[in-house]
Design brief:
By secondary structure, the chain is of the alpha/beta class. Helix 5 links the parallel strand 1 (62-65) and strand 2. The chain has one domain (5-210): Vaccinia Virus protein VP39 (Rossmann fold, 3-Layer(aba) Sandwich). It contains 9 helices and 7 strands.
Length: 213
């Protein structure tokens, strides 16, 4: 397996418009040329950990943050979750995700702004591959907390190379009074057989819940 140039471009994104342009062009080939070709298994691994986490029930309402082409949604459907919505900045990526039939609704929105979602809406928040180079930093945590119900469970992957520089370490300390049960699970992004400069990319999966009050 060899690295794809689009991945380096994604890691170098600097603006909202840069994100939109890249993913509009990449949407139709993302699954085949990147996820399958590179052995990108992070979405499945995050969904698997979420599905078996304490307190997670399949009847709850789930939001897939940074849904992209729906790789997390596909794995959640495999686990029997039927009330899943997806949010992403790219309408083109969302169109691909919607075509897979594993989401109830697709929401176009910018995590660095105010999402078009009411406060206290979701029971569960899941995200794979969004909190990484050139995408979204820790400043988005406040917004996804806003749209989660008290007691909601979060399962978010965070690139290890991005954890400190993008402010996640400081943010989790700051949020100590608003979240509880925080734990981190290590995760590799690609299959062990992957090659190329990003083959050993890894991160953590942050599991926590929103405080009830």
């Amino acid at each position: 397996m060899t690295d794809k140039p689009e991945l380096d471009a994604a890691y170098g994104l600097q603006s909202v418009e840069d994100n939109r342009r890249l993913y509009a062009a990449w949407a139709q080939t993302y699954d085949c040329d990147f996820a399958d070709h590179m052995g990108y298994v992070l979405p499945a691994r995050v969904a698997d950990i979420f599905a078996t986490a304490a307190g997670v029930v399949k009847t709850g309402r789930v939001l897939d943050v940074g849904a992209g082409t729906g790789l997390v949604g596909q794995r959640l459907a495999f686990h029997g979750f039927a009330r899943v919505d997806g949010v992403d900045i790219s309408s083109e990526m969302l169109a691909v995700a919607a075509s897979k039939g594993c989401y109830n609704s697709m929401i176009e929105g910018d995590l660095l702004g105010c999402l078009p979602i009411a406060a206290d809406t979701y029971d569960f928040i899941i995200s794979a591959g969004t909190f990484t180079h050139g995408h979204v930093g820790a400043e988005a945590l406040d917004e996804i907390l806003r749209i989660a119900r008290p007691g909601a469970i979060f399962c978010l992957s965070i690139n290890s190379a991005h954890f400190t520089t993008a402010g996640f370490a400081v943010a989790f300390e700051r949020l100590a009074g608003r979240i509880e049960g925080l734990e981190f699970c290590p995760v590799q992004f690609y299959l062990e057989s992957a090659t190329g400069p990003h083959a050993n990319d890894h991160g953590v999966i942050a599991l926590f819940s929103k405080c009830m009050t």
